[in-house]
Specification:
By secondary structure, the protein is α/β, with parallel strands linked by helices. It contains 15 helices and 14 strands.
Length: 406
């Protein structure tokens, strides 16, 4: 089977480690031919080029700047992506007949390219739904449903519905996502929406005590503290002002140390808080290469998830997978609409609290350190990962739907 994967995630090899390359390697492992279009932005000073691997071709397509740029350039570049991807398919993959098209959100801006291949090759289409845009932007105030921003919302909402319409199957991250999509898009046939969770090629990333001590020493993390780690995006979806309030409240808990690793639009807010307040139990670090980050997580005790309380859509962050394979339990501090906290508590590999009460977060952290059952819950998380979030399970689900349900 020839599989086309369209993405705005940038990678040069299927040997890299993320939820998409892990899945694509599973397709290759099962003798499918994989073709990828992944962007390279203008600021990177590279031309469009094709990378060849065994059973895989990765087209690094030059596009305009959509990151680390002004809003005008970002807008123009984003609007051009559809036609650029479509033209690239015609130029580089004109002689390939695709059987399956995989694509993920974000973005919703590849509709024309997907429609073109679907019609040309009579290919099956499978949407990996990783976010629900534009509603997620409305929830945190980036868009509105009225006024000038309302015009943008209506434009993107129309694109979203069109993407759902051309998708033969919509794979959602969790049951709450399935319910949301069906309830808010009554025109969708319910049986084409199902659960297809974030997944990885499972590896045991836990560390022994001696290795943990060496890693903590390397990064200046105290050995005698219970370390809560957050790794990932530091942007508006994480509700950074609330995170800072929680850090201030927990400043007097002498047994706890907070490690925050990542980048994002709100990174400077955390940086300014640390420079001004000089908390003794908080360390902020820029993002690390994935391999280094995974090792660092294994040297910690509890993983953190943060989601803004205003969200009405059920986010399900993929960063919990790194915590699970490191065999550390998870504290989810989230809105009430996501089911990630329910999954964590039902699976007995962590705790959940809503992200609208600093007092409740403080009380939960005190409760966690008093019980000190990290090893048991961490092992539960690893077993849950193997059972539900292993990439071979996701692959088999996709293939089963492509062959029997579509």
């Amino acid at each position: 089977m020839n599989v086309l994967f369209l993405t705005l995630v940038q990678f040069d090899s299927l040997q890299e480690k993320n939820i998409y390359t892990d899945l694509l390697r599973e397709f290759v492992k099962n003798s499918h031919n994989v073709y990828v279009i992944s962007p390279v932005e203008k600021r990177q000073n590279q031309s469009t080029h094709l990378i060849r691997e065994k059973h895989a071709r990765i087209l690094r397509l030059k596009i305009g700047n959509t990151q680390k740029t002004n809003i005008i350039e970002k807008g123009i570049s984003t609007l051009r992506i559809e036609s650029q991807y479509k033209n690239a398919i015609k130029k580089f993959f004109s002689n390939v007949k695709f059987d399956l098209i995989l694509y993920s959100t974000p973005p919703i801006t590849l509709v024309s390219a997907i429609e073109y291949v679907k019609k040309r090759d009579k290919a099956k289409t499978y949407l990996l739904l990783k976010d629900i845009f534009p509603q997620n932007a409305v929830d945190i105030g980036l868009l509105r449903t009225s006024g000038l921003k309302g015009l943008l919302y209506k434009h993107f909402r129309k694109k979203e519905k069109r993407l759902y319409r051309i998708s033969d199957r919509i794979g959602c991250m969790s049951p709450a996502n399935v319910d949301y999509v069906i309830n808010h898009n009554p025109e969708i046939v319910p049986n084409k929406v199902g659960v297809c969770p974030n997944s990885i090629e499972v590896e045991d990333k836990s560390l022994d005590f001696e290795t943990k001590a060496k890693i903590r020493e390397k990064y200046g993390i105290p050995l005698g503290k219970i370390v809560f780690v957050y790794g990932g995006n530091l942007g508006k979806p994480q509700g950074i002002p609330f995170v800072i309030k929680c850090l201030k409240k927990c400043d007097t808990i002498t047994d706890v140390f907070f490690l925050i690793v990542g980048n994002g639009t709100e990174y400077s807010d955390l940086e300014n808080y640390i420079k001004k307040e000089k908390p003794v139990n908080v360390k902020l670090m820029q993002s690390l290469p994935k391999e280094d980050y995974d090792i660092l997580v294994g040297a910690c005790d509890v993983g953190l998830l943060f989601l803004d309380y205003r969200f009405t859509i059920p986010n399900f962050p993929s960063r919990l997978l790194s915590y699970m394979q490191a065999k550390i339990p998870i504290l989810a501090v989230t809105d009430e609409n996501t089911d990630v906290g329910k999954v964590i508590t039902t699976g007995e590999f962590g705790w959940s609290v809503t992200s609208n009460s600093v007092k409740e977060v403080y009380k939960r952290i005190l409760d966690i350190i008093s019980k000190n059952n990290f090893i048991e819950k961490g092992n539960n998380g690893y077993q849950y990962l193997r059972e539900y979030y292993s990439v071979d399970k996701t692959y088999n689900s996709i293939i089963r739907n492509v062959r029997t349900n579509l």
